[in-house]
Design goal:
By secondary structure, this protein is α/β, with parallel strands linked by helices. The chain has one domain: HUPs (Rossmann fold), CATH 3.40.50. It is built from ten helices and 14 strands. Strand 8, helix 5 and strand 9 form a beta-alpha-beta unit. Helix 1 packs across helix 10. It is globular and about 60 Å long. The chain starts with 5 loop residues before the first strand and ends with a helix.
Protein backbone atom coordinates (compact mmCIF):
# COMPACT_ATOMS: atom_id res chain seq x y z
CA UNK A 1 0.00 0.00 0.00
CA UNK A 2 1.59 3.25 -1.17
CA UNK A 3 -0.75 5.62 0.63
CA UNK A 4 0.39 6.65 4.11
CA UNK A 5 -1.50 4.84 6.85
CA UNK A 6 -4.00 7.11 8.60
CA UNK A 7 -6.13 6.04 11.54
CA UNK A 8 -8.05 7.48 14.44
CA UNK A 9 -8.98 6.89 18.03
CA UNK A 10 -12.66 7.77 18.15
CA UNK A 11 -14.37 7.29 21.52
CA UNK A 12 -17.92 8.40 22.20
CA UNK A 13 -18.47 10.76 25.17
CA UNK A 14 -21.50 8.85 26.42
CA UNK A 15 -19.93 7.31 29.52
CA UNK A 16 -16.65 6.79 31.35
CA UNK A 17 -14.09 4.66 29.53
CA UNK A 18 -13.76 0.97 30.41
CA UNK A 19 -10.99 -1.59 29.90
CA UNK A 20 -12.27 -2.51 26.45
CA UNK A 21 -11.87 1.09 25.30
CA UNK A 22 -8.30 1.16 26.57
CA UNK A 23 -7.47 -2.09 24.79
CA UNK A 24 -8.81 -0.65 21.52
CA UNK A 25 -6.86 2.59 22.01
CA UNK A 26 -3.63 0.64 22.44
CA UNK A 27 -4.23 -1.60 19.42
CA UNK A 28 -5.07 1.40 17.23
CA UNK A 29 -1.93 3.19 18.41
CA UNK A 30 0.28 0.13 17.85
CA UNK A 31 -0.98 -0.72 14.38
CA UNK A 32 -0.75 2.92 13.28
CA UNK A 33 2.70 3.67 14.70
CA UNK A 34 4.13 0.34 13.53
CA UNK A 35 3.49 1.53 9.97
CA UNK A 36 4.69 5.09 10.65
CA UNK A 37 1.15 6.28 10.18
CA UNK A 38 -0.84 9.36 11.13
CA UNK A 39 -3.05 9.04 14.19
CA UNK A 40 -5.95 11.40 14.91
CA UNK A 41 -8.06 11.85 18.00
CA UNK A 42 -11.71 12.28 17.12
CA UNK A 43 -14.38 12.35 19.79
CA UNK A 44 -17.65 11.16 18.27
CA UNK A 45 -20.34 13.17 20.04
CA UNK A 46 -23.04 12.15 17.57
CA UNK A 47 -25.51 11.41 20.37
CA UNK A 48 -25.65 14.95 21.72
CA UNK A 49 -28.35 14.36 24.38
CA UNK A 50 -25.99 11.89 26.12
CA UNK A 51 -23.01 14.23 25.96
CA UNK A 52 -21.40 15.11 29.27
CA UNK A 53 -18.29 17.25 29.66
CA UNK A 54 -16.86 14.93 32.33
CA UNK A 55 -16.80 12.09 29.82
CA UNK A 56 -14.56 14.12 27.52
CA UNK A 57 -12.32 15.02 30.45
CA UNK A 58 -12.09 11.30 31.20
CA UNK A 59 -10.98 10.58 27.62
CA UNK A 60 -8.10 13.04 27.82
CA UNK A 61 -7.12 11.81 31.28
CA UNK A 62 -6.94 8.17 30.16
CA UNK A 63 -4.99 9.01 26.99
CA UNK A 64 -2.49 10.97 29.09
CA UNK A 65 -2.00 8.08 31.50
CA UNK A 66 -1.50 5.67 28.61
CA UNK A 67 1.05 7.99 27.01
CA UNK A 68 -0.72 7.88 23.66
CA UNK A 69 0.18 10.82 21.45
CA UNK A 70 -1.76 11.82 18.34
CA UNK A 71 -1.05 13.96 15.31
CA UNK A 72 -4.29 15.89 15.04
CA UNK A 73 -7.49 16.59 16.90
CA UNK A 74 -8.52 18.53 20.00
CA UNK A 75 -5.94 19.21 22.67
CA UNK A 76 -8.43 19.52 25.49
CA UNK A 77 -12.08 19.78 26.42
CA UNK A 78 -12.40 23.46 25.59
CA UNK A 79 -10.90 23.09 22.13
CA UNK A 80 -13.10 20.07 21.45
CA UNK A 81 -16.28 21.92 22.35
CA UNK A 82 -15.42 25.06 20.38
CA UNK A 83 -13.75 23.57 17.28
CA UNK A 84 -14.04 19.79 16.97
CA UNK A 85 -17.57 18.81 17.99
CA UNK A 86 -19.56 16.97 15.32
CA UNK A 87 -22.16 19.75 15.40
CA UNK A 88 -19.72 21.85 13.34
CA UNK A 89 -19.82 19.22 10.58
CA UNK A 90 -23.58 18.94 10.27
CA UNK A 91 -23.45 20.45 6.77
CA UNK A 92 -21.09 17.71 5.56
CA UNK A 93 -23.43 15.02 6.90
CA UNK A 94 -26.41 16.68 5.21
CA UNK A 95 -24.53 16.81 1.89
CA UNK A 96 -23.80 13.08 2.11
CA UNK A 97 -27.46 12.33 2.77
CA UNK A 98 -28.46 14.51 -0.18
CA UNK A 99 -26.15 12.51 -2.47
CA UNK A 100 -27.69 9.26 -1.30
CA UNK A 101 -31.17 10.65 -1.97
CA UNK A 102 -30.16 11.82 -5.43
CA UNK A 103 -28.92 8.33 -6.23
CA UNK A 104 -32.30 6.93 -5.20
CA UNK A 105 -30.87 4.49 -2.68
CA UNK A 106 -32.61 5.67 0.49
CA UNK A 107 -36.16 6.24 1.61
CA UNK A 108 -38.11 7.77 4.48
CA UNK A 109 -39.44 5.40 7.12
CA UNK A 110 -42.05 6.04 9.81
CA UNK A 111 -41.69 2.67 11.55
CA UNK A 112 -40.44 1.98 15.04
CA UNK A 113 -39.39 -1.23 16.76
CA UNK A 114 -42.70 -1.28 18.62
CA UNK A 115 -44.70 -1.58 15.40
CA UNK A 116 -45.96 -5.06 14.65
CA UNK A 117 -44.54 -6.72 11.53
CA UNK A 118 -41.99 -3.94 10.95
CA UNK A 119 -39.10 -6.14 12.06
CA UNK A 120 -38.35 -9.84 11.80
CA UNK A 121 -35.46 -11.21 13.84
CA UNK A 122 -34.26 -7.64 14.30
CA UNK A 123 -34.16 -6.91 10.54
CA UNK A 124 -36.41 -4.23 9.07
CA UNK A 125 -39.04 -5.72 6.74
CA UNK A 126 -39.14 -2.75 4.33
CA UNK A 127 -42.67 -1.74 5.23
CA UNK A 128 -42.01 1.84 4.05
CA UNK A 129 -39.70 1.08 1.12
CA UNK A 130 -42.32 1.86 -1.52
CA UNK A 131 -44.52 4.38 0.31
CA UNK A 132 -42.69 7.43 -1.11
CA UNK A 133 -42.78 9.18 2.25
CA UNK A 134 -40.96 12.46 2.83
CA UNK A 135 -38.60 13.12 5.71
CA UNK A 136 -40.30 14.95 8.54
CA UNK A 137 -38.54 15.62 11.81
CA UNK A 138 -39.73 13.47 14.73
CA UNK A 139 -41.90 11.41 12.39
CA UNK A 140 -39.65 9.71 9.85
CA UNK A 141 -36.07 8.51 9.55
CA UNK A 142 -34.06 7.83 6.38
CA UNK A 143 -32.99 4.27 5.56
CA UNK A 144 -30.43 3.06 3.03
CA UNK A 145 -31.46 0.18 0.80
CA UNK A 146 -29.25 -2.88 0.89
CA UNK A 147 -28.95 -5.43 -1.90
CA UNK A 148 -30.32 -8.87 -1.11
CA UNK A 149 -27.59 -11.48 -1.07
CA UNK A 150 -24.76 -9.05 -1.76
CA UNK A 151 -21.54 -9.80 0.10
CA UNK A 152 -19.35 -6.97 1.41
CA UNK A 153 -15.70 -7.96 1.91
CA UNK A 154 -14.14 -6.39 4.98
CA UNK A 155 -10.44 -6.91 5.63
CA UNK A 156 -6.92 -5.59 5.25
CA UNK A 157 -3.81 -6.07 3.13
CA UNK A 158 -1.19 -4.67 5.49
CA UNK A 159 -0.25 -7.80 7.43
CA UNK A 160 -0.36 -11.51 6.64
CA UNK A 161 -1.80 -12.63 9.96
CA UNK A 162 -1.96 -16.26 8.90
CA UNK A 163 1.77 -16.33 8.11
CA UNK A 164 2.49 -14.83 11.55
CA UNK A 165 0.44 -17.50 13.25
CA UNK A 166 -2.18 -15.10 14.56
CA UNK A 167 -4.73 -15.36 11.76
CA UNK A 168 -8.14 -16.94 12.02
CA UNK A 169 -7.44 -19.22 9.05
CA UNK A 170 -9.76 -19.33 6.07
CA UNK A 171 -11.93 -16.41 5.10
CA UNK A 172 -14.66 -15.92 7.66
CA UNK A 173 -18.28 -15.47 6.71
CA UNK A 174 -20.63 -13.29 8.68
CA UNK A 175 -24.11 -14.43 7.82
CA UNK A 176 -25.74 -15.70 10.97
CA UNK A 177 -24.64 -13.42 13.79
CA UNK A 178 -22.54 -10.45 14.78
CA UNK A 179 -19.82 -12.37 16.58
CA UNK A 180 -18.96 -15.27 14.31
CA UNK A 181 -15.30 -14.78 15.16
CA UNK A 182 -15.80 -14.36 18.89
CA UNK A 183 -12.91 -14.94 21.24
CA UNK A 184 -13.41 -17.61 23.89
CA UNK A 185 -12.28 -17.31 27.48
CA UNK A 186 -9.62 -19.58 28.86
CA UNK A 187 -9.19 -20.83 32.41
CA UNK A 188 -5.80 -19.14 32.55
CA UNK A 189 -3.72 -22.31 32.77
CA UNK A 190 -1.74 -21.73 29.57
CA UNK A 191 -1.08 -18.07 28.83
CA UNK A 192 -3.51 -16.28 31.12
CA UNK A 193 -2.63 -13.77 33.76
CA UNK A 194 -2.88 -16.21 36.66
CA UNK A 195 0.44 -17.87 35.90
CA UNK A 196 2.47 -14.81 34.96
CA UNK A 197 4.75 -14.62 37.97
CA UNK A 198 6.43 -11.52 36.56
CA UNK A 199 3.16 -9.66 36.06
CA UNK A 200 3.53 -7.33 39.04
CA UNK A 201 4.08 -3.69 39.81
CA UNK A 202 0.87 -2.44 41.37
CA UNK A 203 1.38 -1.98 45.07
CA UNK A 204 3.11 -5.35 45.28
CA UNK A 205 -0.05 -7.10 44.10
CA UNK A 206 -0.12 -10.05 41.77
CA UNK A 207 -2.91 -11.49 39.61
CA UNK A 208 -5.62 -12.87 41.81
CA UNK A 209 -5.16 -10.30 44.57
CA UNK A 210 -8.18 -8.10 45.17
CA UNK A 211 -6.27 -4.91 44.34
CA UNK A 212 -5.11 -6.25 40.98
CA UNK A 213 -8.01 -4.78 39.08
CA UNK A 214 -8.23 -2.87 35.80
CA UNK A 215 -11.44 -1.16 36.71
CA UNK A 216 -11.28 0.01 40.30
CA UNK A 217 -13.39 3.14 40.21
CA UNK A 218 -11.25 6.23 40.68
CA UNK A 219 -13.46 8.88 42.18
CA UNK A 220 -16.80 9.15 44.03
CA UNK A 221 -18.63 10.51 40.98
CA UNK A 222 -17.62 7.53 38.86
CA UNK A 223 -18.36 5.17 41.73
CA UNK A 224 -21.93 6.46 42.00
CA UNK A 225 -22.47 6.27 38.25
CA UNK A 226 -21.27 2.68 38.25
CA UNK A 227 -23.01 1.58 41.42
CA UNK A 228 -25.13 -0.88 39.46
CA UNK A 229 -21.91 -2.60 38.45
CA UNK A 230 -20.18 -2.54 41.80
CA UNK A 231 -18.45 -5.90 41.39
CA UNK A 232 -14.81 -5.51 40.44
CA UNK A 233 -13.87 -6.56 36.94
CA UNK A 234 -10.75 -8.64 37.40
CA UNK A 235 -8.73 -9.82 34.42
CA UNK A 236 -8.11 -13.13 36.11
CA UNK A 237 -11.81 -13.88 35.72
CA UNK A 238 -13.76 -13.25 32.52
CA UNK A 239 -11.14 -11.35 30.54
CA UNK A 240 -8.41 -13.99 30.36
CA UNK A 241 -8.68 -14.61 26.63
CA UNK A 242 -6.85 -16.60 24.05
CA UNK A 243 -4.26 -14.78 21.98
CA UNK A 244 -5.94 -12.64 19.33
CA UNK A 245 -6.79 -14.31 16.04
CA UNK A 246 -7.26 -11.70 13.34
CA UNK A 247 -9.20 -12.41 10.15
CA UNK A 248 -7.60 -11.34 6.87
CA UNK A 249 -10.97 -10.88 5.20
CA UNK A 250 -14.54 -11.37 6.33
CA UNK A 251 -17.55 -11.59 4.05
CA UNK A 252 -20.66 -9.83 5.34
CA UNK A 253 -24.16 -10.34 3.99
CA UNK A 254 -25.33 -6.85 4.84
CA UNK A 255 -29.02 -7.32 3.99
CA UNK A 256 -29.16 -10.36 6.26
CA UNK A 257 -27.24 -8.82 9.16
CA UNK A 258 -28.49 -5.20 9.17
CA UNK A 259 -31.14 -4.96 6.49
CA UNK A 260 -32.02 -1.49 5.23
CA UNK A 261 -30.31 0.56 7.94
CA UNK A 262 -30.96 4.07 9.24
CA UNK A 263 -28.62 6.80 7.99
CA UNK A 264 -30.60 9.77 9.29
CA UNK A 265 -32.54 9.70 12.55
CA UNK A 266 -35.99 11.03 13.34
CA UNK A 267 -34.48 13.81 15.46
CA UNK A 268 -32.90 15.22 12.27
CA UNK A 269 -29.35 14.16 13.11
CA UNK A 270 -27.09 11.70 11.29
CA UNK A 271 -26.91 8.08 12.38
CA UNK A 272 -23.52 6.73 13.41
CA UNK A 273 -22.91 4.77 10.21
CA UNK A 274 -23.22 7.91 8.09
CA UNK A 275 -21.55 10.44 10.41
CA UNK A 276 -18.55 8.26 11.16
CA UNK A 277 -18.04 7.50 7.47
CA UNK A 278 -18.12 11.20 6.51
CA UNK A 279 -15.68 12.06 9.28
CA UNK A 280 -13.32 9.23 8.30
CA UNK A 281 -13.40 10.38 4.68
CA UNK A 282 -12.63 13.97 5.69
CA UNK A 283 -9.61 12.81 7.70
CA UNK A 284 -8.40 10.45 4.98
CA UNK A 285 -8.69 7.45 7.32
CA UNK A 286 -7.62 4.21 5.65
CA UNK A 287 -7.09 1.97 8.68
CA UNK A 288 -9.75 1.18 11.27
CA UNK A 289 -9.05 -0.95 14.32
CA UNK A 290 -12.33 -1.97 15.91
CA UNK A 291 -13.98 -4.54 18.12
CA UNK A 292 -15.56 -7.43 16.28
CA UNK A 293 -19.01 -6.21 17.36
CA UNK A 294 -18.57 -3.39 14.81
CA UNK A 295 -17.97 -5.70 11.86
CA UNK A 296 -21.47 -5.04 10.53
CA UNK A 297 -20.87 -1.29 10.87
CA UNK A 298 -17.64 -1.62 8.91
CA UNK A 299 -19.50 -3.41 6.11
CA UNK A 300 -22.28 -0.81 6.15
CA UNK A 301 -19.81 2.07 5.92
CA UNK A 302 -17.87 0.41 3.14
CA UNK A 303 -21.14 -0.09 1.26
CA UNK A 304 -22.04 3.58 1.74
CA UNK A 305 -18.55 4.61 0.58
CA UNK A 306 -18.98 2.61 -2.62
CA UNK A 307 -22.22 4.44 -3.37
CA UNK A 308 -20.78 7.86 -2.53
CA UNK A 309 -17.50 7.29 -4.37
CA UNK A 310 -15.40 7.78 -1.24
CA UNK A 311 -11.80 6.65 -1.00
CA UNK A 312 -12.82 5.02 2.28
CA UNK A 313 -14.07 2.15 0.13
CA UNK A 314 -10.46 0.90 0.05
CA UNK A 315 -9.80 1.26 3.78
CA UNK A 316 -8.18 -1.52 5.82
CA UNK A 317 -10.17 -3.02 8.68
CA UNK A 318 -8.75 -4.94 11.64
CA UNK A 319 -11.31 -6.33 14.09
CA UNK A 320 -10.24 -7.56 17.50
CA UNK A 321 -11.90 -9.64 20.18
CA UNK A 322 -14.01 -8.17 22.95
CA UNK A 323 -13.43 -8.03 26.67
CA UNK A 324 -16.28 -9.55 28.64
CA UNK A 325 -17.63 -9.78 32.14
CA UNK A 326 -20.03 -12.58 33.11
CA UNK A 327 -20.34 -13.53 29.47
CA UNK A 328 -21.33 -10.03 28.32
CA UNK A 329 -19.11 -7.62 26.41
CA UNK A 330 -17.95 -4.51 28.23
CA UNK A 331 -19.87 -1.47 27.05
CA UNK A 332 -20.93 1.91 28.34
CA UNK A 333 -24.58 1.08 27.71
CA UNK A 334 -24.29 -1.87 30.10
CA UNK A 335 -22.53 0.42 32.61
CA UNK A 336 -19.22 -1.40 32.54
CA UNK A 337 -16.98 -0.29 35.41
CA UNK A 338 -14.94 2.82 34.66
CA UNK A 339 -11.24 2.19 34.11
CA UNK A 340 -8.95 3.35 36.88
CA UNK A 341 -6.21 5.84 36.07
CA UNK A 342 -4.68 5.70 39.53
CA UNK A 343 -3.15 2.26 38.89
CA UNK A 344 -1.20 3.58 35.91
CA UNK A 345 -0.88 2.13 32.44
CA UNK A 346 1.48 -0.81 32.97
CA UNK A 347 -1.24 -3.36 33.54
CA UNK A 348 -2.87 -2.37 30.24
CA UNK A 349 0.41 -2.65 28.34
CA UNK A 350 1.00 -6.12 29.72
CA UNK A 351 -2.52 -7.28 29.02
CA UNK A 352 -2.29 -6.05 25.42
CA UNK A 353 1.05 -7.86 25.10
CA UNK A 354 -0.55 -11.10 26.29
CA UNK A 355 -3.40 -10.77 23.82
CA UNK A 356 -0.93 -10.16 21.00
CA UNK A 357 1.32 -13.07 21.89
CA UNK A 358 4.19 -10.85 23.05
CA UNK A 359 6.39 -11.19 26.12
CA UNK A 360 4.50 -9.23 28.77
CA UNK A 361 7.52 -9.20 31.09
CA UNK A 362 9.28 -6.84 28.65
CA UNK A 363 6.38 -4.45 28.20
CA UNK A 364 6.62 -2.16 31.20
CA UNK A 365 6.14 0.97 29.11
CA UNK A 366 4.54 1.95 25.84
CA UNK A 367 7.80 2.30 23.91
CA UNK A 368 8.82 -1.26 24.76
CA UNK A 369 5.39 -2.55 23.81
CA UNK A 370 5.60 -0.72 20.49
CA UNK A 371 9.06 -2.07 19.69
CA UNK A 372 7.98 -5.63 20.38
CA UNK A 373 4.84 -5.07 18.34
CA UNK A 374 6.90 -3.77 15.41
CA UNK A 375 9.15 -6.82 15.52
CA UNK A 376 6.15 -9.09 15.11
CA UNK A 377 3.72 -7.10 12.99
CA UNK A 378 5.58 -4.15 11.43
CA UNK A 379 7.12 -3.75 8.03
Amino acid sequence: MNQKITSRIAPTPSGFLHAGNVYNFLLTYLFTRAFDGILYLRIDDYDLPRYRRQYVENIFRVLEVLGIDFDGGPGGVGEFETKFSSKFRLGAYQNALKKLEQKGVCYACECSHSMKNSFKNGIYTRVCADKNLKFKKDETAMRLRTIDGAQILVGQNLINFDALGCGSGAEASMAGGLWGNAQKAQDGTANGLKNLTNFRGFGGCKPGDKKFNLNAVENPEERILNSANSDDLNLTDEAVFETEKFAQTQSVNLSQILGDFVVWKKDDTPAYNLASLVDDEMLGVNLLVRGEDLLACSAAQKYEAQILGYGFENANFIHHGLLAQSGKKLSKSSRAPAVSVTDGAKIHYKFAALKLGLDASKCDDLSNLLEMFKEKFGR
